[in-house]
Amino acid sequence: MSLFEQIPEDAQSLSPKSITITRIIFSIFSIGVLALAVFIAVVSGEWTRFGYGLVAAILLWLFGFFWSKKRYDYSRWWFSEEGLYLQRGVFWRKRILVPQNRVQHTDVAQGPLDRKYHLGKLVVHTAGTRDASVTLSGVELEVANELRDRLIDSEQTDAV
């Protein structure tokens, strides 16, 4: 049985707008690869290198196009009595539990694309030294703020 089959019914997925943002980011990187290929071809005078760059840019863009949807399909989050669960990973799947009594502080951040699409990134800082901060990106801004408030409220009960 895989981790994805053990997800509770109340698990939430990311915002579908996160697919668009991921595709935009991959498109920007693909354009960068293409621009680098043009630069190398112009400087070296060998236009076959531009062909390699063009193929690399197209493959990168195609990978990003399909991977962004898969990332969305396999990313979930939910609350339980223990804390906040995050599950993600396309090829290697990972389930992370952020115990409520280990939360030090929380942040909500937005990049330029997040602001355009009204998304937010929740960053939870814990007392641990390894993986001391956990991020949940690609959620609606209101959801990120609600999660932050819920985690802050739960910080009142300190187990230490």
Question: How much strand content do the residues show?
Answer: 25-35%
Low-pLDDT stretches are none
What summary fits the major beta sheet?
A: 4 strands, antiparallel
**Approximate helicity band:** 40-55%
Overall shape: elongated
Number of helices: 4
Secondary-structure-based class equals: alpha+beta
Mean of pLDDT: 89
The tally of strands reads: 7
Secondary-structure element pattern, one letter each: EHHEEEEHEEH
Q: What is the first-to-last residue Cα distance?
A: 35 Å
Reading side by side through the largest sheet, how are the strands ordered? 1-2-3-4
The value of Rg in angstroms is: 20 Å
What does the secondary structure layout of this molecule look like, with pairings?
Elements: E1 12-13, H1 17-44, H2 48-74, E2 76-79, E3 83-88, E4 94-99, E5 103-109, H3 112-117, E6 119-126, E7 133-140, H4 141-154
Antiparallel strand pairs: 1-2, 2-3, 3-4, 5-6, 6-7
Helix pairs in contact: 1-2
Detailed description of the structure:
This protein is of the alpha+beta class and about 160 residues long. About 45% of the residues lie in helices and about 25% in strands. It has 4 helices and 7 strands; from the N terminus they run E-H-H-E-E-E-E-H-E-E-H. The protein has helices spanning about 15-45, 50-75, 110-115, 140-155, and strands at about 10-15, 75-80, 85-90, 95-100, 105-110, 120-125, 135-140. Strands 1-2-3-4 form a 4-stranded antiparallel beta sheet. Helix 1 packs antiparallel against helix 2. It is elongated, with a radius of gyration of 20 Å. About 20% of the residues are buried. The mean pLDDT is about 90.
